[in-house]
Amino acid sequence: MDIKEIQNLIKFVAKSGASEVKLEMDDIKITIRTGAAGSGFETTYVQQVPMGQNQMAPMQAAPAVEAPVSEAAPEKVDENAKYITIKSPIIGTFYRKPSPDKPLFVEVGSVINKGDVLCVIEAMKLFNDIESEVSGKIVKILVDDSSPVEFDQPLFLVDPS
Q1: Helix, strand, or coil here: 6?
Q2: Cβ pair 91, 150 in contact under 8 A
Q3: Residue 109 CA: distances (Å) to CA of 40, 82, 85, 94, 156
Q4: Threshold 0.90, pTM exceeds
Q5: pLDDT, tens only, 126-146
Q6: Phi and psi for 76 in degrees, rounded to 5?
Q7: DSSP secondary-structure letter at 37?
Q8: CB-based contact 58:78 (threshold 8 Å)
Q9: Cβ–Cβ under 8 Å, residues 33 and 151
Q10: pLDDT > 90 fraction of the chain, expressed in percent and rounded
């Protein structure tokens, strides 16, 4: 199972309204929980199973539970409404540099173009370049270096003007 298949599975579970899905295949065990205890965010666990335990279990979906909707402060929404949010396409660890001895990819105030690398996210020992899908100016970096990030978590705010 590759990263794209895991991303598609996460999107499917999020849209289905299921609160928990467990999937076990050969050497991979995945548990996806949504709306856990009113936290309002998704938690996804991917675990490698030792090779000697080859089992396959069908997907089990728990009953749907509606997540509470939190209201944001109106002035905060208006302030950030003019910016484009760049979100994480995968779960993993967020890095602002290609390696510890290299300079940062971008900083607040950096002008970016479509296709520029903004950061790296490490997922399952693979380092994935995250490229910009828009051109503009970095207004805010929403995640600290070396922090874990979730699927669809906001990473950057970009002013497209």
Answers
A1: helix
A2: yes
A3: 31, 16, 15, 19, 12
A4: no
A5: 999 999 999 999 999 999 999
A6: -70, -40
A7: G
A8: no
A9: no
A10: 45
